[in-house]
Design a protein that fits this description.
Blueprint (H helix, E strand, L loop, with lengths): L6 H4 L11 H10 L1 H11 L3 H10 L8
Helix pairs in contact: 2-3
Length: 64
């Protein structure tokens, strides 16, 4: 993915890639994307999740 210090990682839109929670989010993105999106929308703005989904490119993309 994007290593620390790389150009994409230096932009705030990829802030989730630097967080330890990223591993859990990516696992949910692959195994339960609809549940993740539903829970996320109730609690947080979806822009961070959208950017992470763009960077990760999971099998099922909910943000097109």
């Amino acid at each position: 993915m994007h290593r620390p210090g790389s150009r994409p990682a230096s932009h705030s839109r990829y802030a989730l890639t630097r967080q330890p929670e990223n591993l859990v989010i990516l696992e949910r993105m692959e195994t339960a994307p609809f549940l993740l999106r539903g829970q996320w929308e109730q609690e947080l703005e979806t822009v961070s999740l959208d950017h992470l989904e763009f960077a990760w490119r999971p099998r099922i993309r909910l943000n097109r």
